Amino acid sequence: MTRKPVLMAANDYESVLKMLEEITTNARQIQEQLLGEILSKNAETEYLQGFLHGQTDKQLFKKNVPIVTYDHIKPYIDRIANGKASSDILLVEPLIGFSLSSGTSGGQPKLIPITAESANVTAALGNLHLSLMIKHFGDLSQVGKRMELLFAKPDVETPSGLKASAVTTRAFKESSFQAILPKLYTSPYETIFCPDTKQSTYCQLLFGLIQRDEVVVIGSIFAATVLRGIKFIENNWQELCSNIKTGKISDWITDSGCRKAASLILKPNPKLADLLEDICSCKSWEGIVRKLWPKTKYIGTVCTGAMLQFTAELEFYCGGLPLVSGFYACSEGAIAINLEPLSKPSDVCYTILPNTVYYEFLPIKEDCVTDSQNQVQLHTSRHKDTETVDLVNVKPGQCYEILITSPAGLYRYKVGDIIKVTGFHNNTPQFQFVGRQNVALGVDMERTSEADILKAVAEAKVLLDPLGLILTEYTSYGDTSSTPGHYVIFWEIKPKEGNSNKKNGKELDPKVMEECCSKMEDSLHFTYRMYRKENIIAALEIRVVKQGAFEALLDYFVSNGASLSQYKTPICIKSKEALNILDSRVIAKFFSPRTTIQDN
Ligand code: AMP
């Protein structure tokens, strides 16, 4: 069984899916073969030589090569980036550049080496996903276009001459993508590459509205971006409609590429403008996406993990359209695919791709548990031991941290994500995404994971429903400026119906807000509640921020190098600057009034 051809482009979807069956059946052999190839190719590199002394034995590899995070290999990568591009530091194969990770989930953007082969494998993931979508929805490229919010980010050239670009930007630059763009997407090339994200968003939405009768798929990489797009229309529809009516784009769109694209697409269309005005001026925006783009079959966007927080609002706007989380990938590799694209976001299980990288799994000490809403919670993220488990030997029900060894020079590398194995497809594990390993909130010895925070907020925000309010975005912060420290949760809230009567801090019912604080405390893990009881942690605080505060946070991260396409609002913030952005926009503060915490 050869490994390489497995994910290579096969134009008809049935043969791609047949190959998927083969690789998931032969997972064990493929993994062994892949590790063998990586080690024999790279045994003489400076990095592996130091641990393996030229040997390629798998047991020795596991015994001698350390489990590492990005920080451990950063000095090696920095040397490659700073001028030793062609030397055998981490791998023998020549690099074609670096992927720039988003940097919002794990701190600073990371530089991940890429080779021609690893770039191909990443591209093939898109092919595989497309094949699954054809199986479920038919070939939509024959009947319409995709309105996807896509944002390219300028490349950075390293001193060695290698380019560092976001994985998404690299994909947008591919000639094969540019060839299909005008036929299959509503966004012209110039709008995707426009450096001003506001102008880019405005134009992509404008062109999506103009081509509304052709749109069959709506999406973006992450759910937060789709939601931001809808809200952008909510705040700017009059102007968008006026542009469509007159056939003239607003003066503040100064980007020459965007203006050029508009000159080709925008013609006066008062009939369409009136229709859109009618739709947008309705009182409730529930189901607005279906009304604006009536032929849409699904929303293609990642809704799992940190994105789960956006799904309720997205469902409200999308009026029953399926939300399809297609795959799980990171700058380090194409890891898994969702074989059941129609499953609800909270039920999504990804199936690992055994031929892209070599996997090991570090078991997590306490099992994750699944709550009544099928959300996986993780109470502690300490490892059981340092013995890793191979791909085919993982156990359903157990949580693991993922390690990868990739053909592009990463060895026993912690991706930083935690998953829970749910079962197997053929001989290959399937999992639910649990959260980032390093996103832990803590003010004393306790650690609260991303999944814990997600669950606590999900339970508390329900209390806003009767008030006609929606929690639109949130993040958290461990405040240790006074003793004992306490958890701060920043909330951006808006009224459900339109945005005409914006709530300000004074209008929020303090009783309900305090109840939200208590509800969060009650749903946090045992250690938190025990520490609260013993006053080792002070009362949880909700800081309500002005509308637009999280937009400002996004701008901050993007201006610091994050890719907008890959942006994920951090569940927990640690940087002072990011904190100042939110703190300067606080309109009200509420504390949990509880002195005793419920024993769950
Ligand atoms: P980046 O750092 O930009 O490469 O982003 C990769 C990270 O995004 C992963 O390590 C995950 O934490 C997150 N991610 C990617 N795909 C998914 C998914 N399908 N569900 C949840 N989180 C995801």
UniProtKB/TrEMBL annotation:
KW Ligase (keyword) present: yes
Domain GH3 C-terminal, residue spans: 452-577
InterPro entries named in the record: GH3 (IPR004993), GH3_C (IPR055378), GH3_M (IPR055377)
Domain GH3 middle: 350-436
Keyword Transferase: no
Keywords per UniProt: Ligase
GO molecular function terms listed in the Swiss-Prot or TrEMBL record: acid-amino acid ligase activity
Gene Ontology CC entries for this record: cytoplasm
UniProt family annotation: Belongs to the IAA-amido conjugating enzyme family.
Name of the protein in question: Indole-3-acetic acid-amido synthetase GH3.17-like
Organism: Gossypium stocksii
